[in-house]
Amino acid sequence: MSVAAITTNPSKTAPPTERVPLPAGQPREWYETHNRRLKAMRLAIALLDAGVYHPWNADDRRIRSTAARIGIHPPSETTCRMVRALIH
Fold it and tell me: Under a CB-based contact definition with an 8 Å cutoff, are residues 87 and 50 in contact?
């Protein structure tokens, strides 16, 4: 029985996507909502990578500890609800 080894070649990985500036002239609330959604997506991905696949396992404490682990500011209750909705 042989085991296949997974290797990645750094020269063949996709280049990071370029950041596009946000459109000017939007109300402040639009920017806040946009950034909240980005933060919620980052947290949801980190929780899924950590093995949290159900929203009831993602309480506020676990979401905030994940935020600390990946190096972002602790999320608000609204962002935590958004993270659970994304995991759902």
Answer: no
75: number of CA atoms within 13 Å, CB side?
A: 32
Q: pLDDT tens for residues 39-73?
A: 999 999 999 999 999 999 999 999 999 999 999 99
Burial class (CB in 10 A: 0-12, 13-18, 19+), 81: middle
87, 58 Cβ separation under 8 angstroms: yes
- Is the CB of residue 85 less than 8 Å from the CB of residue 56? no
Q: Residue 82 is encoded by which pair of tokens?
A: 């958004």
Do 40 and 64 form a contact (C-beta atoms < 8 A)?
no
9 Rama sector, left if φ>0, alpha if ψ -120 to 50, beta otherwise: beta
Residue 1 is predicted with a pLDDT of 47
